[in-house]
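pasting for the record
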Amino acid sequence: MATKTLSAIRNIVRQFLRDEFISGSAFKWEDDELDLYIAHTLGEISECRPYEVKETLTTTDGSRELDISSIEDLVDKIDERKDKLEYKTGSYPRNYRNLIEIDADTIEIDTTLTPGDAEDVYLYCRKLHQLTESSSTLSPQIETVLVLGTVAYAAIGKARSHVNKVNIGGSRAASDMQGWGTAKMALYLSALRRLARSTTYKEYPKS
């Protein structure tokens, strides 16, 4: 199933918010405003169910250290308990290795082997999900959670901005939207917890 673009997700959010285009009327939420809520929600989702990728690193002759400074959009940082390496590559079964964090830009292969020059090492790591007009890393399941969270944040944000203001929807318009948004938030947080994957540290061979 094809994933949806940013504008498609935004349009679905508007449908839930009943903020669809009507000739002669302005949207209640600007695109930029909804995009901020989408980005915020996507960040929370990435913490619970990150985009898992394989990055190719290159060894330096005689060194087990690897430069990771060029890797962008990591969820947080390389985690010795959640991420792993493959070295040497191309074998079956794969030669998975644990890693040691040296600093923010450097990790070390936890192996007794001595790497040669320009050997490939695969790093399996966790990145932030991406959603643009041309690409997406989201599965249909994650798209559903993203819409739910964005709707909740947008509704609560709008309700708070309407407090103590004259509203054509009546005196309870802000509180009703706040309550509706809060209910959606509870559903979103429950869905977010279901997305989370538990990780168990595994000790891989050093030799």
